[in-house]
Write a structure and sequence with these properties.
- Helix 2 crosses helix 3 and helix 5 runs antiparallel to helix 6.
- The protein has 222 residues and is α/β, with parallel strands linked by helices.
- It has one domain: Vaccinia Virus protein VP39 (Rossmann fold).
- The longest helix has 17 residues.
- It has a 7-stranded mixed sheet with strand order 3-2-1-4-5-7-6, with helices on both faces.
- It is 39% helix and 22% strand.
- Helix 4 links the parallel strand 4 and strand 5.
- The protein has 7 helices and 7 strands.
């Protein structure tokens, strides 16, 4: 097992140039569409729909960036009769596409009342958080959700790191190349993720699944 190494990512820095922010977020869009990001979130939502019997959900996507993952998942889900109203939150205005459903805010102190959304989701956000921060996010997300919290993130693995290096030609931005390596090194194993999310006795039921190309899916039920 690789040791987790918490290395800062350039995209998290306020000094990251705007052009590189846009290029890196567009790289992430392509990676999520091709390599399991969209599919993982879609399957998590399908699971919630199967358990709850609901066919329509309001969804808050935290650390949304351009919001590609829930938006692409929604395009696929509509063919199965499942629809989403999506709201986007990110800490940086420069990371968000403009729109009335986009909000600048802190993922660790969500600026919404309790039970404001059916679902709270995040994609490639959890590995940016240290264990105490991850537990705090989970608590905040559970507070704001009515049904479940969905976490879509990377699995730390040596082969995964090798695949990131092999994928450098697909990345237009040097930020993407740097942060891709840092992300895998910062990612949690499924065991670590479960331990962090269940250490609070008040936490609800948790479901975990593995997906294509070293993705994990987590559902925290209310």
């Amino acid at each position: 097992m690789m040791q987790r190494v918490s290395t800062p990512e350039i995209l998290d820095s306020p000094d990251c140039p705007p052009a590189e922010i846009e290029a890196s977020l567009r790289d992430l869009n392509g990676i999520n569409r091709r390599f399991g990001g969209v599919t993982t979130t879609r399957k998590l939502i399908e699971r919630v729909a199967a358990v709850t019997g609901k066919r329509h959900f309001s969804l808050l996507d935290v650390a949304a960036g351009f919001g590609e993952v829930p938006r692409a998942a929604a395009e696929q889900l509509v063919r199965k009769g499942i629809t989403l109203d999506i709201f986007y939150l990110d800490r940086a205005l420069s990371h968000l596409l403009p729109g009335r459903h986009s909000v600048v805010g802190d993922g660790l102190a969500l600026p919404f009342p309790s039970h404001a959304f059916d679902l709270v989701s995040c994609n490639l956000f959890a590995h940016h958080l240290e264990p105490d921060e991850l537990a705090r996010f989970a608590g905040e997300a559970l507070r704001v959700s009515r049904s479940a919290v969905l976490i879509n993130d990377l699995i730390r693995h040596r082969l995964h790191l090798m695949l990131v290096y092999a994928g450098f030609p697909l990345m237009r931005s040097y930020v993407s190349r740097n942060d891709g390596v840092a992300s895998v090194r910062r990612a949690y194993s499924p065991h670590e993720m479960r331990r962090i999310l269940t250490r609070d006795d008040s936490a609800g039921k948790i479901e975990m699944s593995r997906h294509f190309l070293f993705r994990m899916g987590v559902i925290l039920w209310k």
